[in-house]
Specification:
Length: about 300
């Protein structure tokens, strides 16, 4: 089924159900905002769709990956028909099916130190749902220079059940340090053009090692260092061992509803920034799982 409406008629109906939430001036701000979404798998894909359904008409999608069948449990752009497609192309198709008048720009090579300026200079706000420092750090450096706010993930132990904590780096404030500086990365003192891929990967490995050190205290399994950050196939017997000890912590980082909550929350924060509102979160203020965390590990943010 297709619809035959003008752009003005479309937006009138799009805003109809939320007409008591936003003023006319706020609707215009939302419609005209340019939002970049870096990483459009789970969190980023869900956030971008929520933004388009919320009235944002200018979205830039950045991701070098393709969809695989294992993504289907949590990534809304991934369906049987989009497996094997570039994530940005599947995302663009989906978003235009939601709003055919939207302007969707794609970068299918992802973000790196060579193209970060082109991407950041074309948007007003950024949702950073990328997974590695070679994307995080160039993005944040250029965003600070150009004063573009970034909503990004920061993992916290043991509050990890719902995947991530949303942090705001509001680079409109010149006193805000970059993510790279906050994470004590040795690359922060090196000019961006001189940082190598190996140096970015070294920081990724350091972060993963810290995760593994902490989780090894929380799990009895001898495979505690083969957790969710690993891209490798788990060793034989991993899941059987994990099942025996998983009562220590319920993992939710790669579970569909948990990822959906995180992506939706990111979209809400973006809308708050766009209209300069303190809070329009109309759902539950917080969600807590019933997991019993071991007392031996204090909550801490992974640097």
């Amino acid at each position: 089924m297709s619809i035959n409406v003008t752009e003005e008629e479309f937006y009138e109906m799009l805003w109809f159900r939320s007409s008591m939430v936003f003023t006319d001036a706020e609707k215009e701000l939302i419609k005209n905002a340019r939002v970049g979404v870096v990483g459009v798998g789970g969190t980023g894909g869900i956030a971008s769709e929520q933004l388009v359904r919320g009235g944002v008409s200018n979205i830039t999608l950045v991701d070098p990956d393709i969809f695989e069948l294992t993504n289907i449990n949590r990534q809304h752009f991934c369906t049987v028909s989009t497996v094997g497609m570039k994530k940005v192309e599947a995302g663009k198709k989906r978003l235009l099916d939601v709003n055919p008048f939207a302007k969707i720009t794609t970068f299918e090579d992802g973000i790196n130190k060579e193209n970060a300026r082109e991407i950041v200079s074309s948007v007003d706000f950024i949702i950073d749902a990328s997974d590695n420092k070679s994307a995080h750090y160039p993005l944040h450096r250029i965003a600070k220079e150009l004063k573009v706010p970034i909503i990004s993930r920061a993992h916290t132990i043991p509050e990890f059940t719902f995947g991530a904590k949303a942090n705001l780096w509001d680079y409109r404030d010149e006193n805000v340090s970059t993510r790279e500086e906050d994470e004590n990365s040795p690359t922060a003192s090196i000019p961006l053009e001189e940082v190598t891929e190996e140096q970015f990967k070294a920081k990724d490995k350091q972060v993963h090692a810290e995760f593994n050190t902490i989780y090894s205290k929380m799990f009895k399994s001898k495979y505690a260092n083969k957790l969710l950050l690993s891209e490798n196939t788990p060793p034989e017997g991993f899941f059987e061992e994990y099942e025996k000890t998983r009562d220590n912590l319920v993992q939710g980082t790669n579970w569909g509803p948990a990822v959906t909550i995180t992506g939706t929350f990111f979209a809400i924060i973006a809308i708050n920034l766009i209209i300069d509102a303190k809070n329009i979160f109309l759902g539950p203020v917080s969600i807590k799982a019933d997991s019993k965390f071991p007392g031996i590990v204090d909550q801490q943010e992974i640097k």
